[in-house]
Batch of 3 targets.
Target 1
Amino acid sequence: MATAHSKSAARLMIAPAVFVLLVWMLIPLCMTLYFSFADYRPMRGVFETWIGFENFIRFLTSSSFLSSLVTTLQMVGGILVITIAGGVLMALLLDQPMFGQGIVRILVIAPFFVMPTVSALVWKNMFFNVDNGLFSYLFQGLGFPPYDFLSQSPLLSIIVIVAWQWLPFATLILLTAVQSLDSEQLEAAEMDGAPALARFRFIILPHLSRAITVVILIQTIFLLSIFAEIFVTTNGAFGTRTLTYLVYQRVLESQNIGLGSAGGIVAVILANVIAIFLMRIVGKNLDN
Amino acid sequence: MGQINLNQVTKSFGDVQVIPPLDLQINEGEFVVFVGPSGCGKSTLLRLIAGLEDTTSGHINIDGKDATTLPPSKRGLAMVFQSYALYPHMSVRKNIAFPMRMAGLDEATQKAKIEAAAKALNLTDYLDRKPGQLSGGQRQRVAIGRAIVREPAAFLFDEPLSNLDAALRVGMRLEIMELHKKLETTMIYVTHDQVEAMTMADKIVVLQAGVIEQVGSPLELYHAPRNKFVAGFIGSPRMNLIEGPEAQKHGAATIGIRPEHLGVSKTAGLWQGKVGVAEHLGSDTFIHVHQTGLADMMTVRITGDIEARHGDTIYLTPDMDQLHRFDAAGLRIE
């Protein structure tokens, strides 16, 4: 099929996509790069095109950078742990034959269709609200004082919200992996004297390892840019300021576009470092 | 060790009864083959014995003890699956060690047993490979190795050779038979291939629709099939079954004559027909004969070679001593 003609046709057809990608990704990136070396504060009417690495130095040496980095890692790590542990459990449950399997599976996927802003608001007002949230009622019913989740353990609250959104994704990928496991392997392990827990540990989990790495890779890339959930719930207060949120604050709240852009470039570099690192692990896992 | 008794065992999936009440005795050290067409319940029966399926009613005794409700691992049986069911992420060594590891055996014993099994099965050079790097026959041997190290009361084989090519299948068949002679352990072997059944078994169990049609040694089944089904199923090429007036002459509803018990002549004989396809194997020739007025097609087996062209007229004469007679219900008339 790879004739000269079909090759040029393929190039022609790919061209629009490449063009869009260039316009939507490369231009903003270049502009960010350009601003990151400038002192650009539009509200004060300051625009100096070249101030060297000053923005970067300021951004990297500020105490908020390190704390935001730690927060980002905690948040991403926490969400990954919950979604993968929960996803494996859900996948194993959904694999069991049961009544109404099709509907249950659709329901499980549902949270993935809810927009981040909406789901964060629902969680904030319906569950976490101190005065009339469902958790407050539950705590009162059990005889405990109400707990203000968003101000007393804000990071955990956001982790729970985002994990709830991403659990369906992990479940879906892991479910297909569980279903592809040869049932004779489990039966062989059963004959070999492996109890249920050992079958999980020695047969199911190794079989899922590939799917788990894929989930980790994809989720990490998306989770590094969590924004709406933080914006809607805590506004970056109480130690929930991630790197993404810090960049936003520098640009829009402090109106310092140069500093924010430098932060953006740092974030891009860090995300790429993590991505390369993860790709290597995945590559190794996909090999065998 | 290795005596298995099935007493009035039944199995139903929902409303469908796949195995009606069934009795079977398997003696110590026997090589028993379950054979039958696909969907006849032979694999289900094996899985019932293994404990991978629960019996709906009835009892399974293993070595005199009631094992009906025992989990698979407590029955002391080892199974070799059709897909081999090797653990793909473990090396051959770890695959073979897995049952011992689960049983909590110490490292030294494990190592010794792995070495012994690997030596017996020619796997020593492959111990550190993953199953994905092995050929079909080698995987099969690993699966057997994993079964051997458990020192089971009986081995269960579920169509273990069906994924191998013809040449390898014959080789593995011999290896399994030699293994049986060496270990003298009870083996139960499921297959749909009657050649495998005939060559390997001490005792063949012919099944159809969950019912045992006949139990016996290969030659018993060949010489005295109890009914039409067994007569047609055992033997290759299939027995010729003739109905109608020709059968009534012999006082039967159906008569059967094996292809190798028909004499062939080009000039004279009892039955006349036209040659269809002739299959020349060198050592034997199978001739398909049409227009005999007896059955749609008759098969004749001749030792050596014979000149037979499509459309030639040919005469067949049965060896009357080898004629099988069946009544209207399909049962053998002695």
Target 2
Amino acid sequence: MLYIPCPWCGEREELEFHYHDEGHIVRPDVSVGDGEWSSYLYERENVEGWQRDLWSHDAGCRRYFYVLRHSVTDEIGGAYKVGEKLPPLPVEAEREMGS
Amino acid sequence: MIKRALNRVEGWGRVDRTQEIDFSFDGQWMKGYRGDTLASALLSYDMHLVGRSFKYHRPRGFLGVGSEEPNGLVTWGEGKGLTPNTRGTMLELSEGLKVRSQNYWPSLHYDVKEGLGLFSGLLTAGFYYKTFIWGWRFYEPLIRRMAGLGEGPREVCERDYAWRYCSCDVLVIGGGSSGTAALSELLRGKGRVVILDEGHTEGGWMQGDEGEVEGMEGMDWVRSVWSEADSCDHVRVLRRTTAVSVYPGNYVLAVERSDEVGEGLGPREVLWKIRAKEVILASGGLEQPSTFVNNDRPGVMLAGAVRRYLRHYGVRVGERVCVVTNNDDAYQTALVMKEAGSEVMVLDSRYDVRGLFSDRAREEGIRIEEGSYPTRVRGRNRVRGLGWENLGQGGESLGGREVGYEEVDIVAMSHGFTPCVHLNCHWGGKLKFDEEREIFVPEESSGERFQVVGMAMGEEGFAGGMVSGREAGRRALSRLGMGLRGRMGMWKVGVGGREVEEGEGDRRWDRESVWFPNLWHKPGKQFVDFQNDVSVRDVLLAHAEGFESVEHMKRYTTLGMATDQGKTSNMHGLALLSKLCGKGAGFLGTTTYRPPFTPLTIGTVAGMHRGDVYHAVRTTSAHSAHVEMGAVFEDVGDWKRARYYTQTGESMDAAVRRESLGVREGVGVMDASTLGKIDIRGKDSVRLLNMLYTNDWSGLKEGGCRYGMMLDEAGMIMDDGVTARLGVDHYHMTTTTGGAARVLGWIEGWLQTEWPDWEVYCKSVTEVWSVYAVNGVHSLDMLRDILDDGSLAEGVSPMRVSEGKVGGVGVRIFGVNFTGGLGYEINIPSRYGLWLWRRILEAGEKYGIVPYGTETMHLLRAEVGYVIVGQDVDSTVTPYDADHDGLVSKKKEDFLGYRGLKFGGLRGSGRLELVGLESENSEEKLEEGGVILSEAADLSLLPLENEGHVTSSYMSPNVGRSIAMGLVKDGKSRYGEEVLVGRVGAGGEFETTKAKIVSRVWWREGGL
């Protein structure tokens, strides 16, 4: 079970949270065609590796926020609030440190 | 009858012989000692036959000594405490313990089902699928009676089970030599440590193995470390505790048999939920059996178990022992059994045997037959003798001719050890196959915070296991910033009085793989999986039928699917299938390891969550009054809602008839407090409503109410309700009872992620207000009577919210109702809810007020054609489909679902649309869920085209006939047409009835 660092409350058990979707899905303008709208509704990156999740702390502060999570190992690489500058994914951070 | 425990040897064992314990097995009373398990106590009486096998009812005895045991399952306790399928090797002896053997008829020693012999032919792999494709109804009861384990208890156990939560810095799983070595380092640090071991005594294999640490006998050293831990404040010691599953993030579930058999006041079992920053897994190794004909006879045991019974429990399990091995470790058993006075010989499948223990065995004059492998065991309820063949230099069969035979009563077999990696794999840790040693070991890099040590990591030697344990302990502490000072000192570690270097000198698993030399030419059963009765032949059959994936083979043969999770069978099954496929033993990989490691009782899983506290229940403030008035409740989400009120035992139909007539003709009241309520404030409130609802909210004046539907972004109906404007920037939203939480989450999600700059605040006020829906022609009369200022009742009008006071308490009156006709919903702060409910009933008495439940509410709203989200419409239905076209604003340029509604096809023909339905026979109630077919449908031509289904159906006393609603293909343009509604008749046959498509509104009344 995950241990999730809520940016408002600190580390808590996964039980207190609710996973919603991949993070940063942009709602397109309503003038787009059926294809683009259905891709907004149904198509997801589903990456094998680090990704940005949208979670909410339902049994706590009830805030929505983003979590960096590795979809294979379930490692948690941090969390950040809506509107905050996007922290790099852990792989990107590693790459930067390497270069 | 055996009277004396002849197998108990003086001077051996660590059980407390000063404390005798009486217990019974199948009604026979016997004595054991404090520290015994049922297995050791029975074996002290030389009782090897303790159960019957799952499918073939073959006699079985104890194979092992711990949780790996596949055979020795027993039922213990009586009545409410009855517990089946417990491993006799794990069941600690306690005074008065009553144990029964399982799965036999008529007696353990003579089982008819085995005698019949019929079944072994039938019950091969895949037999269900092949034999009983036809006639399953006939065979099933027969098979169910035949196969099986113990019987479940028939009474509810009244003892407590508990959950406990715990977090720690380091968790050590396993208290064998390497786990204890890790503990000894952790004791020197300051971190909070939890160590657990599944035995009632710590030590693991150390209980039976030779070894010295710092001049102390191995077990004495283990116990000294544990007793130090017992007195340490920062260490929690959990004995009798099995880690059953490990989840990502070092979240470990463990079951403590805290007072399993006792009558104490504490819980019987505790489910520990442990969150550890660091985990050290020292789960040891699992000794593997050998495969030869009749390798399941009572008296055939694992070599390591045989010596553990002797060295730990002082029980010498037999007098004439044949050790069957392909490794050096099993020679320990030969040595120790000889020392205790047994006659011992060894069959070793290898040639030119050299090794720490085998060299000593040779010096001791133990007979060793090299290059030999068992052919078959003689004896039925107990081993009588063992024959063997010679193998070639490469371990291959030379034809299987029996070259020797010896009368023995114990076969102590060892096919080497396999690391016990279950817990490493639960959370996703990977394995790699070690080609040389033919074992699967955890990959080193598999988790920074999860270290595997000792035999579980494939460490072969005693000394090496200790070092890996100590290093892991130190590494954990240093990663936690609690590192120990100084370098790790060297320990003097010895085996058999000889000092050994780390990992050198005692390669105990030094084995040659001899995989199934006698596959083809032996009649009789060689078991791979003892608990599920899977033999070598079953695996051959599976392969012959084309199963080449381990997962498929597992499911086809059921190998490894028993309650022992294949601890003594999986590896052989995998190796055999790989060999049949012409590949190396590890080629096919393993099946997936899934929790739990050992079975856990349902009681433990449930913990305290049973009976009244099984699940949280929400009740309204007037709940007690409903109970008094004979309400029958239904569950709506977590809420208990009054479904109808039964007077003097009337049926639901009668109650609904009485209630619905009473509301229409006089006045009725329903508790509607469960309705979701959200208080919305802020200057962007109306902007929010305009995005949430399909209709336009810009024109709603203060004091006004409006009905709205919410859609998801695909344009499908999500929820509905009435929202009132209480002030300039203040709204009161209502949702469906079941949708309240979802809607609030939905709103918050949009506000927090898409529109974070909007100034609008939402709060759930569902439980702040009690709501009573008052309906019927006298509803306003009654309101006038209870309001402090009765004249205010004149201000109550449709779709308006007004305020007043009852008994000095402020109330809000919403001019809305869900039943049609005159009615309103009166809201009062919840703490006055019960009081107001009683006040309304009192005041309504002169009008003949009728309290009504949800069932009547459903009927009344159907009479006026209102929809219930979740019943008549769901997330496949648009507002157009629901016949609410007018509710979709044509002016607005966006709202949630706006773009979804424009998807091609959503407004064309072929959609299911909501309409009314009337059966041809007005007395006949259509079946809810009944399929709708075209009137011209030819029932003999399959498949029939489905044209929709009935969503709601009632018998309406007010309308004087049955009424129904349904989603019908192109329904809105088919009014007046006839359709067929299907249902399953009493005899199971499909029948249809005629119905007409009509408008949804059956009842109208002037008024509000």
Target 3
Amino acid sequence: MTEPAAVFEHVDKWFGQLHVLQDINLSVGRGERIVICGPSGSGKSTLIRCLNGLEPHQRGRIVVNGIELTDDRRAVDRIRRQVGMVFQQFNLFPHLTVLENCTLAPMAVRKLPRAEAEQLAMDYLARVRIPDKAHSYPGQLSGGQQQRVAIARALCMQPEIMLFDEPTSALDPEMIKEVLDVMVELAGSGMTMLCVTHEMGFAREVADRIVFMDGGRIVEDTATAAFFEAPQTERARQFLGQILAH
Amino acid sequence: MAMPRQSTPLAWLRANLFSSPLNTLLTLLGLWLLWLVVPPLLQWAWLAADFVGTSRADCRSGGACWVFVREHLPQFLYGFYPAGERWRVNLGIGLLLVLALPLLVPRLRQFRRGWVLALLAYPFVAGWLFYGGLGLPVVPTARWGGLFLTLVIAGSGMAAALPLGILLALGRRSELPVVRAVCTVFIELWRGVPLITVLFMASVMLPLFMPAGVSLDKLLRALIGVAMFAGAYMAEVIRGGLQGVPAGQVEAARALGLSYWQQMRLVVLPQALTMVIPGIVNVFIALFKDTSLVLIIGLFDLLGIVQAAVTSPDWLGFTREGYLFAAAVFWVICYGMSRISRRLERRLDTTADRQQEMA
């Protein structure tokens, strides 16, 4: 296999006294789809936020696409161009239309001409099935629609890796499916994905591996089927029992 | 109140003005006060007022002597700017009004780039028009005055205060300790000093510290003082707006690879500034009225020149007319600014209501 899309080597991170990531080792292959799960406060979001430098790590190495993530601004910028991110709270820019949300970074960062950026944006808006809302403002869309726009916005940078930070947690139940459908389709297209989520149905359907975290550590890192059929640790069994019970 | 819509004026009167004994009493009291004030005022300001004539001898009816204002109008508007050169002032102000059009007419937004360039060029063009040189006769700033001077001080103060305030506000929230400290000290220093003191310092103290032979124009010194003062206030208003932008907005912008300045220019500031339009306009209005304080360093703004006129020997005794005129001009301009700000706020609001309003 060629070089991995992203590697964590002995990564540690503290928030003040709190040791939130402890000796994290993780290798993400190209085209691999990984679901990260675990109880709240286990460090899942922090883990993927370290991958694109939204949070600095204090020890260890993070290498994305062969570029090591350091304090060097240029390295961070290069990595961010290759890594798309979708947030729990969508974080669309409310003062811009849907189309402008999608063309902003391609024009400002990749220096695409407007026409080209808009063409690209319309393509991705069509892929997330929302092209008719291109000229609406985010405030006029439902939560599910906003999250799909957020996915399109990230895709417009044509990233190598997509990070999802609990993308359906802020949604009303009836809107979860439309977002998951888009994510399943994206997974089918061969995109490398790291997804923090509690949607175990989605995990079972698309994930190649499940990473289970607890207390800032990766407790389990196994193939999806094995994880659901026979979790190796007691902690994972408990977690699955709780989350699948309802 | 969830009351059914009133059908007749009489019913409206009863519901709104005479609904209880106390309300009836208050209504009658209000009417009585209006009766005391309004008719005499009308009588004085309009019915018994003198409008035509050229000197105080023409004011004999006992009402307001608007002849006084009329005779002094050029002075009130232009100060001691030479009569033959006043077209330059008119042209300069006219240009500014043209430049303000895109704020009110959304359709003109497509020329945004050209507009920004024109805005940047305007101070130099206006400075040349007003002061002269390069083919135009020089009019020293000592001859500038009246409403014109008020507009120059307030206008340049606003134009400088907004960008200065933005930079200071960003600096105060910077992660770099030195930048943060410098901006904080600057803001607190200027905010903690009364404007009068600032103007005194600018006119009296500053020249003492200048190297020999170097002298800055008095008006220019006042302009700088006013701009710094307003900039410090503006910074705090804008900082309030910056704090109102959710952290997720910056995170999303960072995750997309935008640089710090791109994050600020494209994502944070448009939202922050829209949020604090009322606060910004508040600073503008305060600044506009505070320009009257330049009187104490010997500059004659609108109020200063009115004051000079009411104390001139030929026209003693028309204090009321003069001050009323000055107040009216100040009020009209401030109210205008407040209306423009309301319009801008409505236009920049991108929430769901807007679509309904436009549909």
